[in-house]
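Handout, section B. The chain below has 432 residues.
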Amino acid sequence: MSKKVIKAALLGLGTVGTGVYKVLKNQEEEMEQKIGASVAVKKILVRNLKKAAAKIPEPELLTNSWQEILEDESIEIVIEVMGGIHPAKEYITQALCAGKHVVTANKDLVASFGGELLDCAAEHHCDFLFEASVAGGIPIIRPLKQCLAGNHISEVVGIVNGTTNFILTKMTQEHMEFADALALATRLGYAEADPTADIQGYDAGRKVAIMASIAFNSRVTFEDVATEGITHISSKDIRYAKELGCVIKLLGVAKNTGDGIEVKVQPMLVPEGHPLASVNDSFNAVFVHGDAVDDAMFYGRGAGELPTASAIVGDVFDIVRNILFGCTGRISCTCYKALPIKKQEETESRFFLRLHVDDKPGVLAGIASVLGNYRVSIAQMIQKHREEDFAEIVVVTSKVREGNFHDAMLIIEGMEAVHKITSVIRVYGEQE
């Protein structure tokens, strides 16, 4: 029998694109036995032909013409690893309209326009897969969409940004301040030259939007996610967290409640006994709770050339199988609900609050009175030794409506005895 060859085009030859090329080459000998056909990269779209030619042994595959790929009917799969919204969105849309299947790692695009692209794929009976858009090499999109489809999922929570997890790990284990840990992450290549998307929570926010959409069968976009970064976290906050039996992690949390979806990315105190508390360095993990499966956790490398390429090639292989059996487009958009997104002030959280106050009688009682007036219950309170002319106190609240808590903070901030509200950090979990 003649060997079946499925031809693909690669859009981009950066870190991830090079990884995809390597993984496909590494799989060549076993590919036909594994999936029933081989995958051949016919064209690679790049901006700079000369620069790209130094990266691969087959420079004849390179092109700087998108039209050359789009108009080539022999190319059945387009692998987009360019990043950014434009022109990736246009290229993917045109590819789907031309009947080509698409694999992407583009979280920015999927988080904002995933629904539109999935609809386009369904209209043209094409596959549009994006496993690599969340948590790199960790399989989470396919498990949520297929393996756990027999569940009503109530919560997805995870550490989905390796840069911030590395920084917080160094702050915890080596007592670094944020700026020093960021500088180390930059030197080691964990942080980009411009780390804003990571340290401000935007990268994780896009990933949480994607996971929430799939988990709850209702469209969630990046704009729906309340995001907060880690730039204000200090080594002192981390020491207090340890005293309370917790570690601080940047968590992405998506909950399907009775009155709407909650989606947020924020630094949180995580109890040391929770599985996510021990996820360190650049590793990622996603924790899922479903009514049938109960709890499941997915853990591994969340980024990098080969882990991300692993997820992309897995999607490519899935499409090849679908092509061979004539069942492409079988799983399209699963957002058949239109659940409301809860406003941040209507959600409930527990809070860690650190303040500098006058060290004199009545101050603690005054603060407790304000909190009580806004229905903020105190679960724990710690008063530390004097620092100059003030005392430092730490308050951990019970679960409270966020709007009530922030109203109380406005009053406390204006109190004469309060010098400064130093830290406000959420606490993950139900435990008091």
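Note. The chain has three domains: 5-136+305-324, 151-301, 344-427. Compare this with the example in section A.
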